[in-house]
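FAQ: What does the model actually see?

It sees only this:
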Amino acid sequence: MSERKPSQPMAEAIDEFAAHFDPLFKRLSQRENFRYYLSGLLVPIETNKHLRGIAAAIPEANVESLQHFLVDAPWSNAAINGQRLALLPLVW
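And it is asked to produce this:
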């Protein structure tokens, strides 16, 4: 049996994964909010995963910025999903 590799720290692993999506976002704020949102979905929160709870759990996140990112920012849901599906063979 081969020796197990140590797991990456959470923030580093999220950043590494999120970097695959960076070309789909035009602005730095979009790339940052994508990372905050992913982090918020993954960290254990005792309440529902709503934007206020995510912003409370992720110190750098801001409720209004996350709201703008999810609702108003010009990014393509289809492009994000396509990239996600393209990455699946890499993680399996």
